[in-house]
Design brief:
The protein is mostly helical and about 325 residues long. The protein contains 12 helices and 5 strands. The chain has 2 domains: about 210 residues, Rossmann fold (3-Layer(aba) Sandwich), CATH 3.40.50.620; about 80 residues, Tyrosyl-Transfer RNA Synthetase, CATH 1.10.240. The chain is about 55% helix and about 5% strand. The structure holds adenosine monophosphate and tryptophan.
Length: about 325
Amino acid sequence: MARIFSGIKPTGHLTLGNYLGAIRQWVEVDQHRADSLFCVVDLHALTVEHDPARVRRLSRQAATLFLAAGLKPDLCTLFLQSHVDEHTRLSYLLECTATDGEMRRMIQYKEKSARERAAGKSVRLSLLTYPVLMAADILAYGADEVPVGDDQAQHLELTRDLAVRFNQRYGHTFTVPKAVLPAVAARVMDLQDPTSKMGKSHAEASGIVYLLDEADVVRRKIMRAVTDSGSEVAYDREKQPGVANLLEILAACRGGGSKPADLAADYSSYGALKRDTADAVVETLRPIRERHAQVCADPGYVDEVLRDGAERARRLARPTVDAAYQAIGLLPAG
Ligand code: AMP
Ligand code: TRP
């Protein structure tokens, strides 16, 4: 059976982008067909200025939302990254495999470090080495597939390069994983700025649909989405990014192989497209919000799921990481 690993950082409330780009595939497909591990990658939330209490709160909320979205602990393994030491143990060996130049070429590093500097902040070293920890997350479990949104494609390429290089230098140790991107909505854009990704850590919330937004808030955000000049509804990401984004969201929420370009033909006005998109999103999120309230009512359950998940994850990762320690030239502890 294929092994799948994926993760989400607790840096903000989860968004429609996280759901359509990643979580939905985990719930509907992955957990049923593969040995799947889904992780709240909390260590990754420490790469930029953070409030410890908020990280704690968001980590628990992300795990609760995983369950609310439909991940089932009897079908997959859910856990927090910091509960399993193998991630950081392996990360150091991969730091000894990656190069400084490779790290500095990562688009997310370039963008985020520029943003931090522009805000007069210093850049944490972990922001630079973050893709190596991500590679460790994946390689520790011998994952074959990594379902992610399009923004992670470059990090996955790096992960593959590191696995191949390590294997060539020190003997076969790691499975070389591949990224699996969703067919539509691999990159959901901000409703107020459809040329940038809908990201949970953006300060301005009006362009972001959060999974726990009330129905009327979701509607208001979508009805106020920036569309393009002109009035024709066409699927053209370059010339009409706002409309294209709504068409993608609508197609993704409708599911069943719906295609944004086909849906465009059904609309002659932006207003009607927005209304239908708002309805589709509200319907998609409704069961998640309802189940979230139920899961929240039993915090002991979430803790238990995470405890069991971490135990299984440790058992799986340990032998691979031990093998890497030996292969690279470190003596076993005896
Ligand atoms: P992050 O929020 O950066 O921790 O991302 C967690 C997962 O959600 C990754 O697989 C991302 O690729 C995916 N993701 C995040 N934002 C979006 C978005 N706007 N559109 C599609 N996928 C996304
Ligand atoms: N870097 C990913 C993001 O920002 C989160 C992540 C960390 C991840 N480790 C991972 C995703 C391993 C998939 C597999 O979205």
